[in-house]
């Protein structure tokens, strides 16, 4: 559970957003809201535990384009959902299911943006990650354009990856912690196959990759389109991802570089050595990310259907 003092510190980082976001925003208008979200996420997790990785990806892809406004959910020609980087985003049906129950209980009250945020939070806890309170009160956006989607690929430099976060008001600890969500993620083999086959045209694997991982990925990708980004505990939210990076077992190139870049290697070491510290920093980073460019008050709208503007 986030302590009040931690949320207070974050208030001074994002004063406008946190002025209108608050923990328990729906306590009077829809007191069962968070319970409805939690129960449906638990049901889905019981069927498919990879839902944690899917919701983390959805949350990130939504917040880092136009802010946390659920613009990613819109079904329309040339919407964010149709952009290339969002082709692998999934679990839209779960968001629809949650929205339908919330509309039945409290019509036009709970935003789709808050549903994404709460569902992601609950899925992380189910995977063994931290359980925490997060402010709500976001409203849904009125714009969704594919041309706005400019998300980084797995070969981005560490400096480029970190700047993506610092441009949103976060720091290097936040950046590395959020990338640490790859502890439950999978990657498309096409995005890193050169690392174990023909790295940068050399005809050889990437020398920064553990030879045992090279062999393992060759076998995995010969039989599957995807591979786990944490080869140790792929369904558990823990710090094993960082331990793997320190053993040259990062799958994405940018992930592996985190362990050697002077800007991030110390952070990776701290997270690898202290699981509790990593989880605390992850909570801080998620609360910060959840406040990026949010709409509150009378801005935007509360969609009745998450796939369509009212």
Jot down its keywords.
single chain, 310 residues, mainly alpha, Peroxidase, domain 1, Peroxidase, domain 2, two-stranded antiparallel sheet, 14 helices, 2 strands, disordered N terminus, calcium, heme
Structure description:
The chain has helices at residues 4-13, 15-20, 33-47, 51-66, 92-105, 112-126, 158-166, 172-179, 193-197, 211-223, 240-245, 253-258, 265-273, 275-289, and strands spanning 186-188, 226-228. The protein has a two-stranded antiparallel ribbon with strand order 1-2. It starts with a helix and ends in a 21-residue tail after the last helix. The protein is globular, with a radius of gyration of 19 Å. Mean pLDDT is 94; it is low at 1-16. Helices cover 47% and strands 2% of the residues. It folds into 2 domains: 4-149, Peroxidase, domain 1, CATH 1.10.520.10; 158-284, Orthogonal Bundle (Peroxidase, domain 2). It is mainly alpha-helical. The protein has 14 helices and 2 strands, in the order ααααααααβααβαααα. Helix 3 (33-47) packs across helix 6, helix 4 packs antiparallel against helix 6 (112-126) and helix 8 (172-179) crosses helix 14. Its cofactor is heme b; Ca(2+). Heme b binds at residue 182. Keywords: Calcium, Disulfide bond, Heme, Hydrogen peroxide, Iron, Metal-binding, Oxidoreductase, Peroxidase, Secreted, Signal. Pfam families: peroxidase. Belongs to the peroxidase family. Classical plant (class III) peroxidase subfamily.
């Amino acid at each position: 559970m986030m302590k009040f003092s931690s949320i207070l510190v974050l208030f001074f980082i994002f004063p406008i957003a946190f002025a209108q976001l608050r923990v328990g925003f729906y306590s009077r208008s829809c007191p069962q809201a968070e319970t409805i979200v939690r129960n449906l996420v638990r049901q889905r997790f019981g069927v498919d535990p990879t839902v944690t990785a899917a919701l983390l990806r959805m949350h990130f892809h939504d917040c880092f384009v136009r802010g946390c406004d659920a613009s990613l959910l819109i079904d329309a020609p040339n919407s964010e959902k149709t952009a290339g980087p969002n082709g692998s985003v999934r679990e839209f049906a779960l968001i629809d299911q949650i929205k339908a129950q919330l509309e039945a209980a409290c019509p036009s009250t709970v935003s789709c943006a808050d549903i994404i945020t709460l569902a992601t939070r609950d899925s992380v806890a189910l995977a063994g990650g931290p359980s925490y309170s997060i402010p709500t009160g976001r409203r849904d956006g009125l714009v969704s354009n594919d041309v706005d989607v400019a998300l980084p690929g797995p070969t981005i430099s560490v400096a480029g990856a970190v700047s993506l976060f610092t441009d949103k008001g976060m720091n290097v600890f936040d950046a590395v912690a959020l990338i640490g969500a790859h502890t439950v993620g999978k990657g498309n083999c096409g995005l890193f196959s050169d690392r174990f086959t023909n790295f940068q045209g050399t005809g050889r694997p990437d020398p920064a990759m553990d030879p045992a991982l090279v062999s393992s990925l060759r076998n995995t990708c010969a039989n599957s389109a995807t591979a786990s980004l944490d080869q140790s505990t792929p369904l558990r939210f823990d710090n094993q991802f960082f331990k793997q990076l320190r053993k040259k077992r990062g799958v994405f190139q940018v992930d592996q570089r985190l362990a050697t870049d002077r800007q991030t290697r110390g952070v990776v070491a701290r997270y690898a050595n202290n699981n509790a510290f990593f989880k605390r920093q992850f909570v801080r980073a998620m609360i910060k990310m959840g406040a990026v460019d949010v709409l509150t008050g009378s801005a935007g709208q509360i969609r009745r259907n998450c796939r369509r503007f009212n």
